[in-house]
Amino acid sequence: MSVNKIGVIGAGMMGSEIALVFAMAGKDVMIMEPEQARLDKAEAGIRKTLEGGVARKFWAEEDMATALGNITMVTDLSAYGDRDLVIEAVFEDEKVKAEVYKTLDEVCKDDAIIASNTSSISISVLASYFSEKRQSRFLGLHFFSPVSRMKLVEVIRGMDTDDAVIDAARNACVEAGKTPIDVKDVVGFAVNRILFAMWDEVLRLVEEGACTPEDIDTGCKLGLGHPVGPFELMDNISNTLNLQVAEILHEAYGERFHPRPILRQVVAAGRAGRRAGRGWYRYDEKGKRIA
To answer: Name one Pfam family in it (predicted).
Structure first.
């Protein structure tokens, strides 16, 4: 089961970079957003990634030169009828995803593989929004941000996902330079459950006045060998999304994942993170940390 034509739904940071890594692997890639302005922003972001010095550590110059030519941007899912693999990377909300799946059910070819990049919602629950014939061809592919640098992909099997679908999706990820791991369909999967448990504790430390976010970030980088500190990572991902995922984990697992009050406060204050110019730290208009 070969995967050559890929569609990505959602042109945010995750969606655009998922599209980029498959384009770098020589795949024919489409990105869909209903608003042209968001597609224009995604294209600018992809160009910025390709022009950055970090990209040259991961990709050959000739591949980067052709990557944009492998990407088509569209404003309607009707163009996805020929896609071998479609990856949904929209807002982390079950109802929003369900509306997308309704359209995909009608548009995609019978043997298309459909995946969600959800970081927390059960794949078997999401599969239930498809017709029964589609459910065996649906799975989770959870990429990690920034996708252009992070090699991990969690591969999550739903109750009815076919073995051949899992194999084809894993192979496509490997071709894009990723390392897949298999994770059972539990809310939050594996890495996010570990991550949010750690975040709960670092947020407690700040609430207690034991450490500043900057000191904790320094401690995790120099003492634990983490490439980026937890508060830096929260800002990069978006504190708004972090709170949404924390709520999902809390609903599934109870008090062990209760969202910390300080995270609610930061989100309510509009400090969403790097892209908003303010999170746990301040950032300039180019997203560079200034304080």
So the answer is: 3HCDH_N
Active-site residue 128, yes or no? no
Task: Name the CA dihedral angle for 145, 146, 151, 157, rounded to a multiple of 10 degrees.
Answer: 30
Q: Return the structure tokens found at 90.
A: 């929209």
Q: What does the pLDDT read at residue 63?
A: 76
Catalytic member of 17, 88, 154, 232: 154
Residue 250 a catalytic site member? no
**Which residue stretches of the chain have pLDDT < 70?**
53-54
Among the listed residues 16, 142, 232, 239, the single catalytic one is 142
User: Other C-beta atoms within 10 Å of 224: how many?
Assistant: 10
- 160 C-beta neighbours (distance < 10 Å), count: 17
Catalytic residue among 192, 238, 239, 242: 192
Residue/partner pairs of 253-260 with CB below 8 Å, 24 or more apart = 253/187, 253/188, 256/197, 257/188, 257/196, 257/197, 257/200, 258/200, 260/200, 260/203, 260/204, 260/207
Strand stretches in 121-186, DSSP E: 138-143, 152-157, 179-183
* pTM, entire model: 0.90
Which of these is catalytic: 16, 119, 122, 242? 119
pLDDT at 54: 66
Pairing of strands 152-157, 85-88: unpaired
Q: How many CA atoms lie within 13 A of 94 on its CB side?
A: 14
Q: Please give the pLDDT value at position 78.
A: 96
The confidence score (pLDDT) of residue 57 equals 72
CA 27 – CA 147 distance, rounded (Å): 16
Reply yes or no on whether 70 is catalytic. no
